[in-house]
Amino acid sequence: MVDFTLWDILRNLLLAARWTIVLSLVAFVGGGAVGLVLLVVRLGRNRIAESLIAGYVQVFQGTPLLMQLFLLYFGIALFGIDTSPWVAACLALTLYTSAYLTEIWRGCVDAVPRGQWEASASLALSFGQQLSHVVLPQALKIAVPPTVGFLVQVVKGTALASVIGFVELTKAGGMIANVTYEPLLVYGCVALIYFTICFPISLYAGVLERKLHVGQR
Amino acid sequence: MSASADPSATNAVLVAPHTEIGAPVVRITALRKSFGELEVLKGIDLDVMRGEVVAVIGKSGSGKSTLLRCINGLEVFQQGSLVVDGKPLLHESALAMRELRQRVGMIFQSFNLFPHLSVGRNVMLAPRLVKKRKAEENEARARQLLERVGLAEKFDAMPDQLSGGQQQRVAIARALAMDPAVMLCDEITSALDPELVGEVLRVVESLAEEGMTLLMVTHEMGFARKVADRVIFMHQGRVHESGTPEAIFGAPQTPELKQFLSSLHD
Fold first, then answer.
1. What's the gap in Å between the CA of B67 and the closest CA on chain A?
2. ipTM score here?
3. What is the extent of the structural domain holding B253?
4. What is the interface size between A and B, counted as CB pairs within 8 Å?
5. Structural domains in chain A (count)
6. Which of A52, A129, B46, B97 is 20 to 30 A from A211 (CA-CA)?
């Protein structure tokens, strides 16, 4: 039987953690982009588009991410498209993230006083100009803490990609635990790595929140 | 008092509107507006001549603020027509709305300055985006207008560093920067501490003297009496009585106006 040192375990886990980080970034950038588009469409006050997006948000917030991953992974295959766990995981996490972010951001836009819309409209600004020069810059300030906070959820959510066979931190942990017969040690290390990624983000969100309060007085 | 002054001749700060002197800048015909079942404007006919200063008074809920907000399209009305400086108000056309809004300046009760922009940028934003005014010309004009409202030294200040009265004066400069043909003032001193009301009213008064067309909803009866050419008393969604300040305040005809005026003295 082969002996595994702690360094062997950690090294392999850290290599797999790269994929957790990449997957988180893809989900966050992709989800942020989709979420922003959905937000702008939603603010356009088209009734049909608005209810469609509201439905989209409800579906992704009302079902477990695990089911979304399964459904996308096996669902895409059903259409005869050859899909990899990587593509399915990226897609599922992007959609999941976009649904949450568009909802968070809509709340932030709603928090900008109505008078700002009215004043900018009275100055003959177009809808796009109102958004980009008056409303979004103010909403952005409000949005930073909850958005960064949600990033932590996304990082932890990537662990679920292991169920469709994508080898990221959790999946690698399971595999290493199986060969080393040291599940407690291995999963302890896995948890520690997640914490090392997430804790600075949480900390940063807290700092941003305090900064914002100082700004508002 | 102000109808005789030609703004283009007397003061370079204000730009002359398209409308001829003595012709109506705002023409409201049979305007009706409801919020759901509740009809708040029940057929308003009102012409505001170029250079005229019109004060709108009345109880809260009489529809005076709604009327003002209809003129620049912040409220949608169901019937009637509205023309500002030759441009008809068409709610369906975003382009027509923006054309019209370039001719209408609006000052709000709650100032509504953009808190993330400096005072100078507040004034320069709309001319830059909408009128595509050149940067240097835009800045020179913004500085000129801020000087005009007595805030030349606040160009780089942020709105939250200013008092309410100063913020409202910035809002006036911001509206003037778009060279409007008419200014709408919606209870612009109601959110101010009493000691700050005077500085804002003095700016409005000087605009009136320079020939700016003004339509203001106000609770400052002394100011309306002093500055307005015509006072309109609104009651239950209609223009109930209108006339010169002397007639309205000195010799009210209807019992509703008499009651409203006497209620102010209690």
1. 15
2. 0.89
3. 24-113+181-263
4. 62
5. 1
6. A129
User: What's at A26, amino acid-wise?
Assistant: V
| DSSP character string of A137-158 | HHHHHHHHHHHHHHHHHHHHHG
Residue A1 lies in a domain: no
Cβ–Cβ contact B98 with A under 8 A: yes
Cβ distance B216 to B188 under 8 Å?
A: yes
Amino acid at A68: Q
Domain span including residue A191: 6-216
Residue of A nearest to B124 (CA): A123
Give the nearest partner residue to A124 out of B74, B101, B160, using CB atoms. Answer: B101
Residue A139 · residue A107 · CB < 8 Å: no
- Say yes or no for a CB contact (<8 Å) between A127 and B72: no
DSSP-assigned beta bridge partners for residue B57: B233
In a domain, B89, yes or no: yes
Residue of A nearest to B71 (CA): A122
How many structural domains are present in chain B? 1
Per-residue pLDDT of chain A (217 residues; tens, 9 = 90+): 567 888 888 999 999 999 999 999 999 999 999 999 999 999 987 889 999 999 999 999 999 999 999 999 988 888 888 788 999 999 999 999 999 999 999 999 999 999 999 999 999 999 999 999 999 999 988 898 899 889 999 999 999 999 888 889 999 999 999 999 989 999 999 999 999 999 999 888 888 877 766 544 3
Q: Mean pLDDT of residues grouped by 10 in chain B (266 residues)?
A: 40 68 89 93 95 94 94 93 91 90 95 96 97 95 96 96 96 96 95 93 94 94 94 95 95 94 84
Cβ B66 vs Cβ B236: under 8 Å: no
Distance of CA B20 to the CA centre of its chain: 19
User: Which of 151-180 (A) contact B at CB < 8 A?
Assistant: none
Residue B98 to residue A116, Cβ atoms within 8 A:
no
Domain of residue A43, CATH code: 1.10.3720.10
Rounded distance between C-alpha atoms, residue A4 and residue A7, angstroms: 8
pTM: 0.85
